[in-house]
UniProtKB/TrEMBL annotation:
Superkingdom in the source lineage: Bacteria
Record keywords, A-Z: Transferase
GO BP terms in the entry: polyketide biosynthetic process
Protein species of origin: Paenibacillus naphthalenovorans
Family, similarity comment: Belongs to the thiolase-like superfamily. Chalcone/stilbene synthases family.
One matching Pfam family: Chal_sti_synt_N
The protein's name: Stilbene synthase
GO molecular function: acyltransferase activity, transferring groups other than amino-acyl groups
Amino acid sequence: MEDISPIVSILGIGTAVPAFRMDQADVSQRLAEALREQPHSARWAKRIFRQCGVETRYTCEPNLLEPASGCRYFSSASIEGVPTTAERMATYKKESVPLGLEAARKALSDSGMTASGITHLITVSCTGQFLPGMDAALVQQLGLASTVNRLPLQFLGCAAGLKAINLSRQIVSGTPSAKVLIVCVELCTLHFQPSGDKEALFAASFFGDGASACIVGCAGAGHKGIFQLGGDYSVLMPESADEMVWEVGNYGFHLYLSPNIPRLIGRWLPAVSGHLTAGENRPELWAIHPGGRGIIDAVQDVYGLTDEQVDSSRAVLRRYGNLSSATMLFVLDDMRRRLQDRRSGLASGMAVAFGPGLTAEMTRITYLPSVVGQEQLIGDAR
């Protein structure tokens, strides 16, 4: 009897953002006011805010919308009044669960599943932590089984959302009856630093808050508009350990992003991605984690991609900023909407994200407009 491989797929996606929207031009102006005693930093901030590819972002912290004189997160003459890490973690604990719940419920609805069918829960975040964790809160408030297999992925950075998807594919490939719920929540704006240093201003220019979720399981007859998951690959790029650093400080987490990151990606990505693309035509679909405008530019240049092929990544960056681990599902959701709107047929693709290490996380994806039946394997399940 012929062995039929399961169609392991993303069966549903949900996204959510906080209520407070930050206009990039407004934030830039208020930050410049806060830096009026540091004119060089103010000029640099205006330039990077204008050039980073972001127009709007969202935050869970309403104080970030206050005038410069009343914003506790902006640069000031004294450190007194700046939120401590303990305060920021208290806000994270309060705001992360409702946002994760909203995204998870949307993903369940989109997949046509109920909470009782979930066998595994993977929670992802690098912007906060508390115990009992978000995973325990989601089990109780979503009504998941108390025996659900919980797997928190903490402090893995921007690549962690795709890492969770790859881990889920491996779980379902080994246990076809499994249904994995992934919930990513990142509250990046809680870590704005009261500093005029270039590194702090660069990080403040394009990170935003948001949550995303998805269901990974075996597709069957009737599933439509889904992404089948193929082979995956994860690698630490050489000579790059110090290019992306995220450390805990007394006043939030401190992020350092080297300006060399796009150049390193352009240098090493073709070699490492060859493990998934060797001997094949270049994929049509490209879900690139928008870690910044320069990263999208680097991947586009390496593979000679059209503007249309990278438009979902640029659109997410423009509307939401970089949401760390949650961003990849925003990109896939936008891409799926576009494919459905133009009634696309089957299309193969690649999802790629980068994180501290530097880590490159990659996955083959195939858009399936519909699944006829389990006996009919559609797409690339390598």
